[in-house]
Amino acid sequence: MADLVLRRLSKRYGEHEVVAGVDLTVEAGEFISLLGPSGCGKTTVLRMIAGLIEPTGGQIAIAGQDVTRLPPHKRYLGLVFQSYALFPHLSVHDNVAFGLRRQGVRGAELERRVDEALDLVRLGALAQRMPRQLSGGQQQRVALARAIAPAPRVLLLDEPLSNLDAQLRADMQIDIKRLQRELGITTIFVTHDQAEALSLSDRVCVMSAGRVQQIGTPEDVYHAPANGFVAGFLGRSNRLRGRVIMKSADTITLKLPDGTELRGLGSASLGNDAEAIIRHEAVQVAPDAAGNATVVLRSFAGANVQLVLRLDSGLELIAECPSATAEAQLVPGMRAAVAIASDAIFIAP
Amino acid sequence: MTRECRAGLLLVSPLFLVLLGVFIAPLALMLPTSLHPYVAGRGILPGWTLANYAEILLDDYYLEVLGRTLMLGLSVTVLTLLLGYPLAFVLTRLEGRARTLLTLLVVFPLLLNLVVRSFGWITLLANRGLLNNALRDLGLIEAPIRMMFNLTGVLVGLTHIFLPFMVLILVAALDAVPRDAEAASATLGAGPAKTFALVTLPLTIPGMFAGAVLVFVLSISALVTPRLLGGPTYRVMSTVIYDAFLGTLEWPAGAALAFLLTAFALAIIGLAGMLTRRWTVAA
């Protein structure tokens, strides 16, 4: 059953259209990410769902009920902010109890549900602390407990991890995922971090310039990007400009300035300039003294090794390979054979 | 001594030297003065006595003026708080040009001379002032309502004059309330009134306290407005002290009055601070 439906949702500030007709259907219990660069309108969409920003057009429905004009306090949603936004004058316990008290929950029932929410984020022992006595990670856990305690219809997360350091962020990712699975709560997660979006979500909604570029499973948006923006935004890519010289039903041939011809998937008009987008890991490298390229740079990044390769034609490509492989042992000056599978080349205007 | 500590001392020392010269030194000179006996016709005599203080504390007239001054200070504080809070609240919800304009309007009275502002109220509040004339012309009253040379006049004048200070401090306090905290309250099911009562108001208590202390201190030490709107009959501590120093030249009595006023004011502020802290912690 669809739990949350956005229809042609839009927001305009004067001449500036921040969100331009977003359609999105979220199933009950689904974890969906709004992913995009800053300024793409993803936070505006989230705040419109929460009722904190009034849309200029379109409709928001939660569990079949049109809530477009409903004030935020009547929507029964949980929202976790990037800034945590805890009430600094209330203890952890009272922060978590805030939403429950507004619903009229009192006495033993209140205590039970506050304890339950705090146990879910493993902060049961800190109930009497004040927010300023907690670390950033603990504060964000309290914010999460506060949002889920009143059993909201939808959980909205607005870049909740971006103020945390890398290790904490990884831990919190797992916590959020576990929590969402245990509670089965419909969740919308706003982020600009593609790794976060891909690893947490059932589906990812990639946004750019106020529009939805693609909605699909993490595998779909990563391996079958709908357009050049999605292909370029996800993963790390080589971008090569050239001219389209041939176009068939499913492949496009691009001729680069150095004469190299690349055949790939995508969309572009014959005779026009276009860009080939090739993920770093799609560049296949093999040590070969009679190969077509020379290693220029090697940089070790733990699990992976990045190689900058100069082809004999003059073209430079970046390749990424697992650090245990033979090609990862290549050092600058060595020769290698470089190849790219045509299904790993995406061509976009 | 750490580097930060030395740097801190260096930074506060200019202000400290100024205060030493113009505030602490006169205070140190006034304290002995208040402890010398004074005899009319012969002036300040050598020797030490507490008679100046005793005289004030045992005199109904002085006690009445003292009580009146403190009550006036409290009334002005409460009034500016009640009038200023909604204004500051609206101001912080405005943006851009509208906010600049309203801020200017709030500050504008401060650009006018204090005497002019007080005199403006005289033309409004006097027995033959604008207000009384208008009411009489409308047939609403027979005899003029006395609004000057009493509590009403001084209260109106001081509230008007100190309102900008209160508003500016409250604006700073309201600006410091994180908007996300208010938004969080709304998403958790609190309507605008509940959000105000449970989040905004408690978070601005320190600001309200700061504004209240400032207005209270300014009110009980104000001289020009009580002089003009209170006249010779409605007297407060500052006018009595002024007369003691410059009228009758009874410096010891004037100094004693000033120190007593300061002591009572400090006691009230300390008590208010304690209550505020307890309230904030309990909330």
Written account of the structure:
Chain A has 349 residues and is α+β, with helices and mostly antiparallel strands. Chain A is built from eight helices and 20 strands. Chain A folds into two domains: 2-228, Rossmann fold (3-Layer(aba) Sandwich); 238-348, OB fold (Dihydrolipoamide Acetyltransferase, E2P) (Beta Barrel), CATH 2.40.50. In chain A, 24% of the residues lie in helices and 38% in strands. In chain A, the strands form four sheets. A six-stranded mixed β-sheet of chain A has the order 6-7-8-3-9-10, with helices on both faces. In chain A, strands 11-12-13-20-14 form a five-stranded mixed β-barrel. In chain A, strands 15-19-16-17-18 form a five-stranded antiparallel β-sheet, with no helix packed on it. In chain A, α2 crosses α3 (107-120). The longest helix of chain A has 18 residues, at 166-183. Chain B has a single domain, classed as MetI-like (MetI-like fold), CATH 1.10.3720. In chain B, 79% of the residues lie in helices and 1% in strands. In chain B, α1 (3-34) packs across α13, α3 packs parallel to α7 (151-175) and α5 packs parallel to α11 (224-230). Classes of the chains: A alpha+beta (349), B mainly alpha (283). The A-B interface holds A 50-52, 71-79, 81, 83, 85-89, 98-99, 102-103, 143, 146-147, 150 and B 178, 180-181, 183-191, 194-195, 198-199, 202-203, 280, 283.
